[in-house]
Amino acid sequence: MRVVKISGAKKESLAGPLFTGPDATRQVLLPDSKEFSVNVVNFGRGVRNKFHAHDSEQILIVTLGKGMIATETDEKVITPGDVVIIPAGEKHWHGATKDSEFSHIYVSRLGSKLTQLEK
């Protein structure tokens, strides 16, 4: 058994084509897991990722701030304590509202693939 503290996980930049701005970081929580990818993603105010889909289910656990999750037909505000399950293949995006930073833990199957669907 091992206990990991989020505060001790190094922040790595996620700036790139999947995000709408440069203020996005990732903290890898369980780099040695053989089954799961478990990371914290931190978004600056107004930053979100672009429409994308995963080939496995994705779970988001909101830990900080106010965010949005959206599909092509639905959009919801999410706040700390909310848990979101996104089915495999569902086109979606998530990120911070304009007035708040936002963080969530994401859990997915190790080795699952993300396909960006928005330029």
Can you put this structure into words, describing what you see?
The chain is mainly β and 119 residues long. The protein has one domain (6-110): Jelly Rolls (Sandwich), CATH 2.60.120. The chain is 0% helix and 45% strand. The strands form three sheets. The protein has a six-stranded antiparallel beta sheet with strand order 1-2-3-10-5-8, with no helix packed on it. The chain has a three-stranded antiparallel beta sheet with strand order 7-6-9, with no helix packed on it. The mean pLDDT is 97.
Furnish the topology, listing elements before pairings:
Layout: E1 11-13, E2 24-28, E3 36-43, E4 52-54, E5 58-65, E6 67-70, E7 75-78, E8 83-86, E9 93-96, E10 102-109, E11 114-116
Antiparallel strand pairs: 1-2, 2-3, 3-10, 4-11, 5-8, 5-10, 6-7, 6-9
Short summary:
The chain is mainly β and 119 residues long. It contains no helices and 11 strands.
Please estimate the helix content.
under 10%
User: Which structural class is indicated by helix and strand composition?
Assistant: mainly beta
CATH class: Mainly Beta
Q: How would you describe the shape?
A: globular
- The CATH topology comes to Jelly Rolls
Total count of helical runs of at least 4 residues = 0
End-to-end Cα distance, whole Å, is: 42 Å
Number of spatially distinct domains:
1
